[in-house]
Structure formats: structure tokens, C-alpha cells
Design a protein that fits this description.
The structure is a single chain. This protein is mostly helical. It has one domain. It has helices spanning 8-32, 37-52, 63-80, 85-106, 112-142, 165-168, 170-184, 191-211, 214-234, 237-260, 262-272, 278-297, 311-317, 333-362, 367-382, 393-412. The termini are far apart. The relative contact order is 0.15.
């Protein structure tokens, strides 16, 4: 009819693009703006409901999907039986955020490359915010007239003083992994997309350098080394030249900045060479004490644990008097999950890791598979020294994007 402006296929295509835009915009917002829990939950719930209409046809649940469902259910049960439910609710909210976004992204497998690029834009903005915070903290430290920055690395951070920098730093690992994955997936990637992904990777790597974290340095190095082979195999000759020239330029810029700010350069060298200073001795002794305490708590965990986010209360109830009472984390993901969610939570975590590994191993014959495996290996290694599982809103977003990318990529190349 004459008044039919759009045919049904055209209308469906427009609605499809609108839903894709909503997901991308939501990722950017959640990466760049820390919303109050109620508003971020309402935003993501609305997007999840709207984007699920018509997008679940032909979809099926994988073993990893079911493992995430089970882990979330375990978190809910542990929250109900928690020592302090009020303490558990913030972490349960973050895991709800993760699951909602993960399921939403899973239903849009064909649009994942565009969503990754959008998240790269959000990560660029996030890194700029991190640089500003580091600069602010650094200038505050300078006014104190101390000589060695490495001794004050817990003060000069990329986050606000209300956030725990170690847990939050996993976001840079994930950003590097998915940025390199996007570059390795298509030989005909446009220059704009290459520039966005490279900028996201470079800025995230710069944040890693400024984190002054040995564990993060080692994890990032593994991620980059495993991804290098994939990039050299999949990119076109011109793209390789762009990557190499851009990487050299980025290294020169970073080195120049570090030389200009001598205390920062000295701190990076101290961390890289593992020079034993007082702060590092305290860090090593503290981590060993925390892990020892956590191991003593495991027999008391039971089936459902002390409750999500209740690690510190578990220490207090266990009557353990160690320096670890000053922390609310076990600095080891497996130990903390066992204490807070019991043996049920640990078993589900192991199942999730096995399923993730199974999917990644099937993809080792391709370049992108190596990149994803490098990212997963780096995250697993980092989890041995930090408890980063859904540390905050931004971590929940990128971790959901990474996991959805792994599963969707496996679906396409099964």
C-alpha cells in the first residue's frame, strides 16, 4: 500500500540496528560513568528485556551458560545464609549486572565485533579518567616530599581511594585481550576500527605500567606474547605495518613520559626488577599471611560458605588473629569463593573454568583463538594474586563481554 513507508523486513532491520545500538551505548555508559546501583540495574534490565525480543530464536544454552547460572544461584543462596546480608548485597548486585549483560550479549553473537569497538571507545574514556586520577594522586604525593614512589603505590593509584586498585586493575587485562581479538579477527578491518582498538590497547597497557603491580605486569606480558603470533598471522601487510609503527610510537611516548617523571620511572623499574624494598617485603609477607589464614578457614566453609562479601566476618568468627584481619579479600579468587560460597561455589567455579578451557582449546587452530586463550590465561594467573571477580561496575561489564565473546566465537567456529 502507498502508506506503507517501511516494509516488514526493513522495519525489522531498523529495529535490529536500534537494539544493537542500545547494547553498545549501555556498555559505553557503564564503562565511563559509575551509576548508583538502582539506576544501573534498571538501565541494564530494560536493555536486556528490549533486546531479547526476537533475538533468542534459534539460540541454545551452552554448558558455560548453565555454569554461570549455577554460580549466580550459589551466590544468591550464600547471600541468604550470609553472616551479614547487608555486606553481601553489593556484590550480589554486581553479579546480577554481570549475568544480565552476559545473557544479553550472548543473544547478539553476530554483532559482537561492533559491540567490542563501542566498548573500546568506552575504555579509552575510562583510561583517560584513570590517568587523571593517577596524576592527581601523584601530585598529592609530591607535596609530601618523599623519595621513593614505590613505597606509596597503594596511595598513588588509578582509582579513587574508595576503590581497591588491585581488583579493579583486571579491567585493563580484559580490555587488552578483547581489543587484540578484534584486530585479529578480520583482515579487512577499517582504519578507524583499527585505530580505536589500538588506542584502547595502548592506553590500557599504559595503565598497567602505572599500576605498579608485579602480578599485573606478568599477566599482561603473557597476554601480549600469546596475542603477537595471532596478529602477525591474521592482519594484512598494511595493517601489520600500522600496528608495528603504532607500537613503536607508543613505546617511545611511554618511555619519554617516564623519563620526564623520574619518580614514576624509578618506581616502575623497582617493580619490574623486583627490587626488595620495605613496601614490597610487607606486601609479600601480607599476601602469605592472608593465604595462610584463608586456608585455615576452608574447613569451616561448609556447603554454602560465609556469604558473598563476608570474608572479613568469616575471619573474625573463626577467631583468627593475623594481619589478614585488616583486609576484606583473600587475594586469591579460588580461596575467596570457597570461603564465601562454600564447596558448592568452588565446584561450580571449577566447572566454569573447565568449560571455558574446553571452548578455548577448540579454537587454538586460529589466530583469534590464541588471543582469547592469552586473555583467559592472563586473567587466571592474575586471579592467583587478586580477587577480581566482578570487582565493580566496569569490571562486570568487560568480564561479561569477554565471556560472551569466548562463547559466541566458539559457536561460530565449532
Amino acid at each position: 500500500m502507498a502508506f506503507d513507508i517501511l516494509s516488514r523486513p526493513d522495519a525489522g532491520s531498523a529495529f535490529s540496528h536500534l537494539r544493537q545500538y542500545m547494547i553498545s551505548a549501555t556498555c559505553v555508559v557503564l564503562l565511563t560513568i559509575t551509576l548508583p546501583p538502582i539506576w544501573s540495574f534498571v538501565l541494564l534490565s530494560s536493555v536486556a528485556l528490549l533486546t531479547s525480543l526476537g533475538s533468542l530464536r534459534g539460540k541454545y544454552y551452552t554448558s558455560l551458560d548453565l555454569a554461570f547460572f549455577a554460580f549466580y544461584l550459589s551466590s544468591c543462596v550464600s547471600t541468604v545464609f550470609a553472616y551479614d546480608i547487608t555486606t553481601a548485597l553489593p556484590q550480589l548486585y554486581l553479579r546480577t549486572l554481570f549475568l544480565l549483560l552476559y545473557l544479553t550479549l550472548r543473544s547478539w553473537g553476530t554483532s559482537m565485533p561492533d559491540i567490542i569497538v563501542a566498548s573500546g571507545i568506552g575504555m579509552i574514556i575510562h583510561c583517560i579518567e584513570s590517568f587523571v586520577l593517577f596524576s592527581t594522586h601523584y601530585h598529592e604525593w609530591v607535596t609530601l616530599h618523599f623519595s621513593r614512589l614505590v613505597d606509596f603505590r597503594s596511595f598513588v593509584t588509578l582509582t579513587t581511594h574508595t576503590q581497591r586498585p588491585g581488583n579493579h586493575a583486571a579491567i585493563y587485562l580484559i580490555a587488552i585481550a578483547i581489543g587484540l581479538y578484534r584486530l585479529s579477527g578480520d583482515r579487512n578491518t577499517s582504519r578507524v576500527i583499527v585505530s580505536i582498538c589500538l588506542l584502547s590497547v595502548w592506553m590500557s597497557t599504559a595503565c598497567v605500567v602505572l599500576s605498579l603491580s608485579r602480578g599485573l605486569y606478568v599477566s599482561t606480558l603473557i597476554c601480549l606474547l600469546m596475542s603477537t603470533c595471532a596478529l602477525t598471522k591474521t592482519l594484512s601487510l598494511r595493517s601489520r605495518a600500522v600496528v608495528i609503527i603504532g607500537a613503536c610510537a607508543a613505546i617511545m611516548i611511554v618511555v619519554s613520559c617516564l623519563l620526564f617523571v623520574r619518580p614514576v620511572m624509578d618506581a616502575v623499574i623497582d617493580v619490574t626488577l623486583s627490587n626488595i624494598r620495605l613496601s614490597q617485603k610487607r606486601s609479600i609477607h601480607g599476601r602469605l599471611s592472608v593465604n595462610t589464614t584463608a586456608l585455615h578457614l576452608i574447613p569451616q566453609s561448609g556447603m554454602f560458605g560465609a556469604g558473598v562479601g563476608n570474608y572479613a566476618l568469616a575471619i573474625r568468627r573463626g577467631g583468627l588473629d593475623t594481619p589478614s584481619m585488616l583486609t576484606v579479600h583473600a587475594f586469591n579468587t579460588a580461596l575467596e569463593v570457597t570461603i564465601e560460597q562454600g564447596f558448592v561455589g568452588l565446584a561450580i567455579l571449577v566447572v566454569a573454568l573447565v568449560e571455558l578451557t574446553r571452548i578455548l582449546v577448540k579454537r587454538l587452530r586460529t589466530g583469534p583463538g590464541y588471543v582469547l586463550l592469552g586473555g583467559a590465561t592472563a586473567l587466571l594467573l592474575y586471579s592467583l594474586s587478586q580477587t577480581y571477580v566482578i570487582a565493580d561496575q566496569a569490571t562486570a561489564v568487560l568480564f561479561a563481554l569477554f565471556c560472551a565473546t569466548v562463547v559466541n566465537d566458539g559457536d561460530r567456529h565449532a
